[in-house]
Amino acid sequence: MCCFVFLLIMRKFSISLTIIVFLSGSLIAQSDFRPGYIIYNNGDTLTGLIDYKGNQANARKCVFKLSKDDQEEKFTPEDIKAYRFIDSKYYVSKKILTEDSIETQLFLEYLIDGIVDVFYYRDLSDEIYLVDNGDGNLLLVKDKNDVVVVDDVAYANEMKRYRGVLTYVFRKSPKVCKKIDYMQLDHKSIIGIAREYHQEVCTGQNCIVFEKAPQKAKIIVSPLLGTSVDFLRIKNELKVNYYFLEGSDFNVSVFPSAGLTFRVNLPFVDERFGFIFSPELGYREFITRNKGFDSGNPVVFDLRFSQFNLANSVFLSYDFVFDKIRPYVFAGLRINYHFNTDYSRKVLDQSENLLIEYTNNPFPSTYYCPAFGAGISYTFQKVGTFTLDGFYYRDSSSEGVLFEDGLSFRLGYLF
Fold first, then answer.
1. Pick from 87, 217, 228, 406: most CB atoms within 10 A?
2. Mind giving me the DSSP string for 303-340?
3. Taking the model in full, what pTM does it have?
4. What is the rounded CA–CA span in Å between residue 4 and residue 22?
5. CB neighbours of 76 closer than 8 A, spacing ≥ 6?
6. Coil, strand, or helix at residue 18?
7. Which residues contact 228 (CB under 8 A, 6 or more apart)?
8. Residue 168: enclosing H or E segment and its boundaries?
């Protein structure tokens, strides 16, 4: 009966998951195209829609189409001179020399056009600025921390090497050079310094700021209500001291849960990627009754236990943007921690009509379960945004005699 219920629920869940993923795939082509234009290498421009991605993706390629229903066309930094989102970010193709003396061509975000031009891009680990003081050479400006070990303790030593480069670039203004000693390396500071330098040194040319303040990672907290469907099954090899589990068929435990969801977006990688962390608390019960032998005597094992379940889920998610509706898929780890367990194993010796009860819980308290799922969020006007998702999880531990898996369905509300 347990297996039948499991297969039935899994079938329904798989169908739902397939529908969501299918809809997600059909919407991805329209994911986040925004008005903009590209500039060809010969100077010609073409207006249309450009796929808006994170800083790293924007530096590698430009995905363009003339209109909503047209085919996409991908451009590399070698293919076009620049591209820009209307009233937003502006990217230009430039060859740069990395710290390892490797030449590469990227789309750099154009922050400010003045007597000193400032550009920006982000690689996997660092934010990097480049400046051109009018001679066509791009100077690398980045912060770097060295690790210093003192008495077996590691300390981060801020080198601030960028100050020397910027002092050289802005050398014609002692006033600006003094401010460099106290500035941090970020968009606001370097644009402010470059604009002030332009106003002091160059009076016959306007200074143009293209920069759009970079989006910062946001944390969105939402309450959630859920329902979990948990299964307990015996592993193939049953240890000798767990003989009482032979032939056991645990019930399916369906129980409600409540908790919070913390969503963190990753704009520096791609606006559609994010982390989801969800602690949930529920209460579950399992029962199994089976016949066996104990010391050669026929007995009946009656095992039941109930416990609180604190489920901590950590997922990497990807959203498909489509107006009010946002399908998303995710994968990660669900850690089930069981506590306050009320355990009872009764052994009825049928030959001697003797009942013995054991109350020491022999099962582990923590299960690590890889998980994957899909969901959808929908924004109702004047009401807010609701999320509905479901996922499957399965214990990956090689220890213990039982493994658990299950399904979770959750409804949330985003503030």
1. 406
2. EEEEEEEEEEEEEEEEE--BTTEEEEEEEEEEEEEEEE
3. 0.59
4. 27
5. 60, 61, 62, 105
6. helix
7. 253, 254, 255, 256, 257, 280, 282, 284, 309, 311, 406, 407, 408, 409
8. helix 162-169
* DSSP string covering 380-404: ETTTEEEEEEEEEEE----SSSEEE
DSSP label of 278: E
Whole-angstrom distance, CA of residue 118 vs CA of residue 94: 12
Instruction: Determine the 3-state secondary structure of 58 from DSSP.
Output: helix
CA distance 378 to 412: 11
Here the tokens at position 314 are: 């950590």
What contacts 24+ positions apart, CB below 8 Å, involve 7-15?
9/229, 9/407, 10/392, 10/407, 13/390, 13/392, 13/407
Per-residue model confidence as pLDDT tens digits over 310-319: 999 999 999 8
CA distances in angstroms from 1 to 4, 13, 251, 268, 404, listed in the order given: 5, 18, 9, 49, 17
- 45-74 pLDDT, tens digit each: 999 999 988 778 889 999 999 998 899 999
**Residue 173, both tokens:** 């203004």
Closest CA to 127 of 109, 101, 115, 113: 109
How many Cα atoms sit within 13 Å of 331 on the Cβ side? 3
Find the farthest-apart pair of alpha carbons in the chain and give their distance in angstroms, rounded. 107
The string of pLDDT tens digits covering residues 312-353 is 999 999 988 766 788 999 999 999 999 999 999 898 887 777
Taking residue 179's Cβ as centre, other Cβ atoms within 10 Å add up to 16
